Amino acid sequence: MKYGKVSLFVTNRHCYRTIFILGNMLVLGGYVNAKAAEVELIDVSTNTSKKCTNVLPSFPFKPHGQAIVLLKGSIPTVCGGYDSSNSKHLNLCHHLINNTWVSGPNLSRTRHHPSAFTIDNDGTSWMVVSGQEKGTDILSLNGSRTSGAPVPRQVYAGCSVKINSTTAITMAGHDGTKFPTDTHYYSIADNVWTPGPPVKVGRFTHACGLLQDKVDPGVQYVVMAGGRKDWGGRNGHLTSTEVLKVGTNEWIQGPDLPDKTDGAYMTATPDGQSLIFSGGEFSNGAQQKSLYRFQCVSGNCKWEKLPQAMNVARFWHTAIFVPESTFPCHEAA
Description:
Elements lengths: L4 E6 L4 E6 L3 E5 L11 E3 L20 E2 L2 E5 L3 E5 L2 E2 L4 E2 L3 E5 L2 E4 L11 E4 L6 E5 L6 E5 L4 E4 L10 E4 L4 E5 L11 E5 L4 E5 L10 E6 L7 E6 L15 E5 L5 E3 L7 E2 L2 E4 L6 E4 L2 E2 L7 E8 L2 E10 L8 E5 L11
Antiparallel strand pairs: 1-2, 3-4, 3-30, 5-8, 6-7, 7-10, 8-9, 10-11, 12-13, 13-14, 14-15, 16-17, 17-18, 18-19, 20-21, 21-22, 22-23, 24-27, 25-26, 26-28, 28-29
């Protein structure tokens, strides 16, 4: 896969040359948006606002609240959500292969606002977690589907992160009546959920991701940001960011988002050293095109607004990094 842009990274204590392993970010979906089916490709590796001019195939529906994973390192796969063009919940999965959306295995039921992560080392199998409906599905590129262990409670519009080859974590979300603060670890080998450390603020439709420290890549953080803590209206939109250092048992308060933001999406760059936070809805109802980068350097974390932006303002969308060799960014001259 074609990656690698060399840059000089400077802090108050360090100056070193590093290779940022960056692909391009693929974005699709969004709530109440006529352009939700449009698929964007964004190069965030430069300090310019140049846009990719690639015309990628539109998604078969106008989805929001869907889950996304990258299979075999190069196949974006979208599952579940709600189709606003036909006003129905979805139990479908689709793969983007050879610039065409191809049907994959169906979920066992419709799932609105599920989360997902791969569960094998070669990226051919993945788990889709809960959503507005309970339970989990384990799916494979060969078309098979089995039931995974259910999370101990419903996790509607929660968020999940695969930490390593053995463990994932799902956090917060709505349980049908309230916004619990509990989290649960998933053992991939044993297909078992166990309690994890509670977050400080219960929420749903938030963003999350796994991040490596920029100075010490052996240190990892699970990061959760934004979302809201009310069922209706916009009074509960959050600026709150919480950080869990992997191997510890307590979430700590991170730097706040610049604005109260619900329904954004966060995805890790392929080098693992940046999380890109895209879009969302502010508490005034304005949908956003903006992108922010979250990084931690020796445990000091910060948000930074990027010069790039999405073409379409979106929230309740999905985004994921894809290899440049498969999805090159064609920029206008």
